[in-house]
Amino acid sequence: TTPQKWNFGAGPAMIPRPVLERAQADFLNYNSTGVSLMELSHRSDTYEDLNNKAQAQLRQLLDIPSNYKIIFMQGGGHTQFAAVVYNLVAWRHEQNKTLHTKGADTEKWAQIPVDYVVTGSWSAKAAEEARRLGANVRVVCDAKKALGAYTGIPDEATWKTSGPESEYRKSDRAKSQTPAYLYYCDNETVNGVEFPFVPSMHDPAVPLVCDMSSNILSRPVDVSKFGVIYAGAQKNIGPAGVSVVIVREDLLHTSELNDGVMPVPLMLDYKTMVKNNSLYNTPPMFAIYMASLVFDWLLDPAAQRVQDGEKYFEKELVGVQAAAARNERKARKLYKALEESKFCRVVVTDKSARSKMNVPFRMSTAPKDKPDAVANKKEDEAMEAAFVAQAEAKGLLQLAGHRSVGGIRASIYNAMPEEGVDVLIDFLKEFEKQCN
Ligand code: PMP
């Protein structure tokens, strides 16, 4: 048997072992069809059943209200960076025309504002893509500017959103055009910043668009507060290849020809996808099948009990409740160990915004109790490299931080058992002893 590995990769990430085993068993003969799922027509009843089942499971897991549609799309998170711009600018244009807003008939794409909250590298990239497409991007909150680095979430009252509770309410901005949407990223995978709240001070006529790629299904979410939620699969849902989009029905009312504003490319068009039940073209069938197995796993009390293990079992929970309880415990003990360690420094200083999914930290030989002590960057980086290499040798995989920021990052998604976090903490203590 292969020795136990603990995969702390940020994505593609760990997939629950029982899911992999089930997929292996199904591989050559799916549902007694005699062929592999990947050889079946996407127009077959067998596949359509699977497509519908996966949607129903996700609806159950996130308690998605009936006025929201679920779409499976391709192209990962990056494709959604563009899709939200096209779809919602076209929707806002249609709204403006319907409401006879002054100038709506001759309105151009670049006149409709789109608001972004930037709390890390993924929301920054999403804003950048909107800008690249020629949209009228307004960064209403820039955490790096406000805090010096991506180490937390600036108070919502300081965001430059137009809304009844905003301090900018009476300003010129409030009088300017209503933006198409307000965008944010619920969990910044690289920087480890996660929202402990859902923004609420903006104009209620402005739909919230949220990137939940790296924390979807990790905790309950009130879907009714959002216009669009999307997530790439390769963290908490399954393998890369499919993205889940949850969209409020009324936002699908975009003009047919998108006169004046840019037409929505067909493959990015939420309306086309909904009309065709995500079967407009050939879908990533295997990725959707894997997602469905992950949903089965989350919904199965026995599987959740096994995941907890006898040592950790508290009470029988399923779905996102089970995941959330476990994720709380895992994150709490890991941050505690890092706080207590002599060499480790948690990157996200705003404790309320520390991610329960991605835990970035640095190592430094400079004493923690002497904040002015000069660190030796080379020495510190060598220590981090030694940590990652020794961890790898012990079966603790993919702990290096994102290539853009360096350091160390432990990603502890739903599929990471609590035992894996304990093994990491034990290793950290052992490593420290050796460095003393
Ligand atoms: N958003 C977030 C929060 C992510 O973590 C990632 C990828 N790690 C992306 C977007 C981009 O996803 P993809 O690689 O699927 O395009």
From TrEMBL:
EC number: 2.6.1.52
Record Pfam families: Aminotran_5 (PF00266)
Any one cellular-component term (Gene Ontology): cytoplasm
Cofactor(s) needed by this chain: pyridoxal 5'-phosphate
GO molecular function (one): O-phospho-L-serine:2-oxoglutarate aminotransferase activity
Pathway: Amino-acid biosynthesis; L-serine biosynthesis; L-serine from 3-phospho-D-glycerate: step 2/3
This protein's UniProt keywords: Amino-acid biosynthesis, Aminotransferase, Pyridoxal phosphate, Serine biosynthesis, Transferase
Domain of life of the organism encoding this protein: Eukaryota
One Gene Ontology term from the biological process aspect of the record: L-serine biosynthetic process
Keyword Transferase found: yes
Catalytic activity from the UniProt record: O-phospho-L-serine + 2-oxoglutarate = 3-phosphooxypyruvate + L-glutamate; 4-(phosphooxy)-L-threonine + 2-oxoglutarate = (R)-3-hydroxy-2-oxo-4-phosphooxybutanoate + L-glutamate
Aminotransferase class V domain mapped to chain residues: 6-112, 176-424
Family: Belongs to the class-V pyridoxal-phosphate-dependent aminotransferase family. SerC subfamily.
NCBIfam families per UniProt: PRK05355.1 (NF003764)
Identification of the protein by name: phosphoserine transaminase
Source species: Mortierella polycephala
Lineage, broadest ranks: Eukaryota, Fungi, Fungi incertae sedis, Mucoromycota, Mortierellomycotina
